[in-house]
Each structure stands twice: as C-alpha cells, then as structure tokens.
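Handout for the seminar on molecular recognition.
Each group receives one record of this type.
Step one: identify the two inputs.
Step two: read the structure output and locate the region that could contact protoporphyrin IX containing FE.
Step three: write two sentences on what you found, then compare them with the reference statements printed after the record.
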Amino acid sequence: MTNETLANYANLSLYSAMAVLTFSMLGYAGYLAGLLPARDDRAEPADAVDRELVAAGGGTVSGDASPHGAGAAPATESDVPLRARKAGGIAETLAILGTLMLLTSAVLRGASVERWPLGNMFEFGVASALFTMAVFLVWGLRRDLRWLGVFVVAPVLILLGLANTIWYTEAAELMPSLKSIWLVIHVTVATISVGLFAVGFVVALLYLAKDHFGERRGLLRVLPDSRTLERLSYGLHIVAFPLWTFTLIAGAIWARQAWGSYWNWDPKEVWTFIIWVVYAAYMHARVTRGWRRQSATWIAVAGFVCIIVNYSIVNMYFVGMHSYSGL
Amino acid sequence: MSLSTQPSDPRRDEGIAQPTLGTLGLLRFAWRQLTSMRTALFLLLLLAVAALPGSIFPQRSIDAVRTVDWMARHETAGPILDSLGFFEVYASPWFAAIYLLLLVSLVGCVLPRSKIHWKAMRSQPPRAPKRLERLAAHNSVTVDGSPDAVLGDVRAALRSSRFRTHSHDNFTVSAEKGYLKETGNLFFHLALIGVILGMAWGNLLGWKGDVIIPVGQTFANTAARFDTLSPGPLVDTADFEPFAMKLTRFDAEFETDVQGQGQFGSPRDFTAYVDFTKEPGAKVEKKVIRVNGPLETGGGTAFLLGNGYAPRLTVKNAEGEVTYSEVTPFLAQDNLYTSVGAVKVAGAGAVGKQLGFAGLFLPTAVLDEQGPRSIFPDALEPALALTAFEGTLFPGGRPQSVYSLDTAEMTQLKNKAGTGLLRIWLTPGQTYTLPGGQGTITFDGLERFAGISIRSDPGKEFTLASSLVALVGLLLSLTIRRRRVFVRVAPAPDEGRTVVSIGGLAKDDDEGMGEQLEDVLTRLKERRT
Ligand code: HEM
C-alpha cells in the first residue's frame, strides 16, 4: 500500500528544505565573512598578547581564557559586528526551519508507505542529513556554533543532492527481511551516530586545517583555537562511539532474527566492524604516549572515510545479503 | 649501548646495567612490547585493514559459486590470492594471528591494570601537593570559622559531591572520585574477551543445516535428512532432537503497485505454514515461520531463508510405466526467480542408458529473441524450458549437485527432425513425447518450496551478555571523570577566619574541573552559614 499524494508532499518538503538550507548556508558564510574585518581591527594587539603568552613558557596557563580558548573567535556577543550577528541569526532560523522540513519530509514519506522511512539509500541519505542537522542544532543550544554552520550545512546539502538524484527510489513497501522492529532500532541509531560522527569529522578537519596552516591564517582565524577544536571533536566522537557500538550489537541481534546467525561476515557487517575498530583505534591513539593529537585525529578522519565508503560503495557495488539499496 | 634493541627505548639504561639480557630478558622485553598501548593500537589498525579484503573478494564459506566464478575470470590472480587466503579471509592464519595477538595483548594489558586498580580502590587518595596553585585548576576563598571546623565541613562538602576523602594531616584533605571510569574501562576490555570466547564456543558446539521442503512434504530432524549440514567439531549429530515439521502451505507476495526502478517485483512477504511435532507421537502444533520470525524448535531455531518453485514432474517410458514422479525443486538464480534444476531418471531407460533433463523453470515465462526468461517472480505464466540427455547420470559415482546434470558421459538428444538439439517447452498439464521412443515427460503441476535453515548456537547468549557488559563498561569509561581534589586550610590574617585553598588534578584535559571546584566551594559555603 502506497499513498502517492503523501509521497509527493514528502518530496516537495524535501525540495523546500534544500532551498531553505541553501540560504542558511549563505547566511552562515555571511556570518564568518562579517567577522573578518572585526578581527583585522584587533589583529595587532591580539597577536601581541598571544606571542607574549607563548614566550612565557608555552605551557597552558590557567583557566581565565574566553569560552573559546585563547582569544580566537569573539569572546562575547558584543564583539560580534552587527552585520555578522544579523547574518548568523538569519542562518540559524533558516537552519531550524530547513531541519523541520526535512523531518516533515521523512514523516510524510513514512506515512505514505506506512512504515519507518529507513528502507533504502535515498531514505538513509535524507535521515543522515536530518540527524546531522539535528546534532548541530541541539549542540548549538549549549554553545555558540555559528562558526561551524557553513561547514555542516554545505556537506548536508551535497548529501541531499546525491540522495535526490542518483539514489532516488520511489516510495514502496519493504522486503520481508527488513520488516522488523530491529530496522527501527538498528538503522535509526546507526543514522544518529553517523550524524554525530559527521559533525565530529567536520570539526576534526577544521582542527587539522588550523594546525597545518596556522591559527591566524585567513578565514581560519575566526574559528576557535585548535586546542578547543580538537577537544570538541573528541567530545562528539565519544558520544558517537557507544552509539555505534550499540548499532553493531543491535545489527547482530537482527542478523540472527533474519538470517539465522548473528555474524555472517557479510560486506556490510565487515564494514560496520571496520569502522568500529578504526574509531576504537582513534580513542587509543589519543591516550597512547608518543602519539600526537594530530595523528590521532587523522585516524578519526579515516574512520569517517570508512563510513562514506560503507554508505556509498559498499551499498551499491559489493554483493552481500544487505542488498537493500533499492538501486 | 649496543645491546639495546631500540635506540628510543627508555629502558636503555637497564640494558647497560644488565649486559646479558638472556632468553628470559628477551622474553620479558617481547612481552612488554606486545602488551604496550602502541602495539595494541598498531594491531587494531592492522585488524581493520586485514578485514577489508573479505568484503571485496567473494568468500568461499559465504558464496562458493561466486568464488569459483571469480577465480575462473581471473586466471592468474585467482590462484595466487587463493593461496594467500583471500577467499577465506576470516579463517585465514594471518587474520587469526592478528586477533589472537590482540587478544594476548589485551589480557597482558588488562590483568596488571586490574590489579593496580584493585589496589587503588582500596587505598587512600595521596597526600596533597605543597603548592595547590601550581595545579591547572585552583581557587581559594576565605570563610568564617577556625581551620579545624572548616576542615570538617570541607570533608562533608567533598563527600556530598561523591568524593572519597582522606586527611594525611590536620590541615589538608585529599579527595578522589570517578573510580568507576577505570572499572568500566577494564570491564569493557575484559568483556571483549568474553565476546571472542562466546563466538568460539558457538563454533565448537553449534551446528547449522539447510533443507528444502516442498509444500506437502515432511522434514524430520536427522543428520541424513539435511541437504547440507555443518556441525561444529564437538557436535554429536546423533543427539539431534527428534522433531518433525510438515510444510502445509507457503505464501509469497511480490510488489505489483509501485512501478519504479528497483521496486516492481520486489519480494514483500513470505510465510511458511508448518505442522510441527516436537517428537514422534507428540501433538501436532500449527506454526508459522516468517523471514524475521523464526521458529524455536527447542535445541535449535528454524529460519526461513529461501523459497522457490518445485514443479511436479512425471516421466514414463515407452511402455507407459512411471519411471520418475517427484516434486522437483528448481533453485532461483535472480530476483525474477529464473530457476535452474535437473531431473535425473535413474531407473529403466533405453538399454544401458539413463535419462536426464536439465534447464530452467520460469514463473512468468516469455520466449523471445533474448531466449527463455522470467519477467516476474510470481507464478503467473509458469513454464519449463528443458533439454534432455541420455547416458550415464552418475559417472564414477562422484558426488554431484541435485540441481544440475553431470553431462560428462551423456549425449544430448536431438529434435525429432534430427536437425538440431531437442528443446522442450512445458506448461502445467502438458505432456511432451520424447523422440525415438524414449517415453514422455509431464508437467503435472506446481508447488512452492521453503528453504529452511536450522541452527543451533549455544554460545550466543554468552556473546550477547558479554557485548552488553562491554557497552555498559564503555559508557562508564567515557562518561565518568576521574578527579582528584586537594584542599588546604590556613588561619586567615583576620581573627576567626580561614583561608581555604583548593586545587584539582584530572586525567587528560578536563574542561569541567574549574566548575567542579566551584561546586565544592559552594557546598562548603552553604555549610558555613
Ligand atoms: C580488542 C582490542 C581493543 C579494543 C577494541 C579496545 C578499545 C578501546 C576503546 C574503545 C577505548 C576507549 C574507552 C576509553 O577511552 O576509556 C579503550 C581505552 C583503553 N584501552 Fe583499549 N582496546 C583494545 C585493546 C587494548 C589493549 C591491548 C590495551 C593495552 C595495551 C588497551 C588499553 C587501553 C587503555 C589503557 C585505555 C584507557 C584510555 C583512557 O585512559 O581513557 N586496550 N580501548
């Protein structure tokens, strides 16, 4: 049973979300651009202070730094130029609106086929975009994340574009092996953790960029300092990792229900395992003496590359029992 | 100096003091290397890389047919990769070597840590450092009261914030909390060993067997009745439970509403209805087996893993005697259920010759320039497309598949005119008369079959419990913070007041330490008013 009207509304809502998110992305870009001149005004003294701190022993001194660490991004809201504040505000409102539209699209899609809307590549793509945005927005309630907006919304738009074109699958019922409560549990948690890993990955890349090009190079200077970025990225990863561990366990339970054995070395299972092992290695590397934070972060980046491979190449080209991509 | 194995080894100096390392020393050195974090990290990354090829190359134990195919298509690479174990990655010695080393490393790492942690939990927090303001997070306040009285309240404040406290003297308190972090971490690592043990247990004592049951037939759970059976090394197949199940009906539904790519004709629902008897003579129970709804048989679980079509076929010889009459399963090769199968008429044929048929069953058949094929998985226009052979069906008595003919010692029959090969096209109810007085073949009707897999894994509960322990341990390890807090009290210059200095020490960088100290001071102030 498929209700085509609802499915069409779902698509309409998706297109609208993409349009709204595009403007949100532009707004976030405007926010960053708006910060730049302000930084230039203060560049001299800030740099001087910084050099002094480094000269004074290089150690991390005490806890009187701004919430963002040593004077990189604006310390208080009044330091943010009006232009940037306006752009940031609009971007945030549009991001919330776009996310709600994505949610609406997923709900309508689910209603149109009377099932959980996570049954094929297209639906995974939309849900991943939705959860990535949700992670970003919910996290944003706790700290000022306007600097991160453009780096999250842009990849989300690319993902939605892919979902809408090469992965598009018409709304329909599921294959028998997917009809299970474990679809809801396993795939939903997997998609949430992918959302967290995605934001963690973006922050990790920003950290590595800042570490490589220098704290004050170009646009990078309006971002939080690299130490803060590294810590934020780690914080996201340690929330995502237990969720991924749960995904692995739930997948095994479901595999026994559906295929008779909880572990079959099916390509999709293998990749879930590989991703888990790579992120475990990241956490290890971070506490292994003699390993620098940069090298550890590269392992986290490799972990997300594995997630991308798992989503795209493994789903579409590897032969296994998980051939549900709908392609 | 020359004795040291690694220039960067911090224990280099020991090497000088002990000029002969000896076998024991070398072993100890190797053990220390193996159980180091660095090695664990290296092995983890290696494990991830080693698991890769198994997802790229077909694996023999999962899909033997695709493996053979791949090898046939890659004549040079095939045998090389095969000898390196690339088609059997997860059973290969190198894969095993990695995870066993990791396991040994894990045990060697976790056991000493458990001992240390056990001791730490039973001992007191260490003495406060001389200068608390040297600690990354520190603070100080002046409150009313004598140092002694304040110290008592400091202790109470720390305890109310779930710290364990100890005073090594009369003007300091040492406090620590978050022991559960390390406990969780150790449980996580130990539980991983449990997961591996549970899997090994299942492999040794578990078994799985597959059987194809056409509608109307009964399966009895004995080793001989399975089409394929793979018991673990410690399984006694004579001990199987004596249950039986008769497949009374099989329902299959396919997508017909949605026309879109990848959806039309997709399977939608499969249900097998069985009459289940726990043991001979027991009451018959009506049960259903679905794709996500297996049937517990007691010692095992019956899963519905496949289905397909089984035409009822009858072959008669020239005298009209029935030489073959069976429901013959044909195996689906694709999503449209284009199925292959064979009919082996072992009984009386022409003198000294046996008769064999091989070919396709097509649930919704079309015959056009692309040849015979199926265009929909449901049985809308079923047809059989067969070729016929005569000769010896079982040359040399070699084992062979039920679903294909070994034509090594057979010749293919020609058509009536003798101009080409014989091609038989049959729809239900039709009979075909073979040329040369070979008799007839009749397509009497069509049944569905269910592919049932019966599996037993006695280790699965243990594996599941271990993985849940690992998950809980991981959560504790990642969410709890290990914190040490030291407090020193000293009389303030103004009479009747006390200066309280507080400093915090954390593992890793701990953003919340400052807040933690604030919290303790707030609790203290509440007590002082
Ligand atoms: C099967 C292989 C292993 C896996 C999958 C694994 C996984 C993990 C994970 C995910 C963590 C992060 C949890 C946390 O930070 O508390 C961790 C932490 C840790 N692992 Fe392992 N580990 C393995 C083997 C080992 C081995 C062999 C050692 C010893 C050399 C080891 C020592 C540690 C230590 C000391 C920590 C604590 C890090 C901290 O202080 O937070 N692990 N491990």
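Reference statements: Residues A 280, 283-284, 287; B 35-37, 40, 44, 102, 105-106, 109, 185, 189, 192, 477-478 surround protoporphyrin IX containing FE (CB under 6 Å). The mean pLDDT of chain A is 83.
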